[in-house]
Amino acid sequence: MRRTVDDARRWVDFGTELTLKAVAGWGEPEMGLPSGLPGWTRKNLIAHIAGNADALGNLTHWAATGERTPMYSSPDQRAADIEAGAHRPAHALSGWLRESAERLATAMAGLRASQWRTEVVTAQGRTVPATEVPWLRAREVCVHAVDLAAGIGFTDLPAGFLTALSDDVVGKRGTVPGQALTLTATDTGDRWHLAGEGTPIAVSGPLAGITAYLTGRPHGVTAADGSPAPRLAAWL
Ligand code: ZN
Questions:
Q1: CA of 199 to the centre of ligand 1 (A)
Q2: 147-20-24 Cα angle (round to 5)
Q3: CA atoms of 182 and 191, how far apart (whole Å)
Q4: Which pLDDT belongs to residue 127?
């Protein structure tokens, strides 16, 4: 693994600031527009980002106290929060976005070394040490900053984050059926082998494009013969 907890915490701050800056000054008309995610307005997405901070705050509480507090109280709660977000006023959503991020930052700043090692369970049911919480949050704020459809692209995200995210997605995709691929970032020289079926297809493009491709976002990467890169199944 090429990332540290300190890297992840830096990327949380970076992505949080990027998201808050993008949303600053948005009223009802801007928030009602579609996000980059199918079927979600920006309001749905902002409610999801804020709800995720609260949910990861539960894991931080778990780490601090040892009291088992899952991210979401029920499988439906996450979806209900996102849906309810569409009906909340724009100013309430931007307030929730900012305050939830501040609460999570304060809670993480208060964890001692031994508490960071506490095992917690993610919404996907994985048991991980609390040191993974900043990475889970970094992924959310950085990738969803792009999904806000506010002119932010993967090229605006730190290269170290893009590499770590590609590592993460390649690992996850390698455990489910799909086409075998080799991916080359033409600007950094990073390479990944995605385990899968068939002779691996070589795909290349800039690191930001490779990461966008791997995460199922709009991208410009192609196969070696110039044809479009193979379609990937949804990620997360
Ligand atoms: Zn998300």
A1: 32
A2: 105
A3: 7
A4: 97
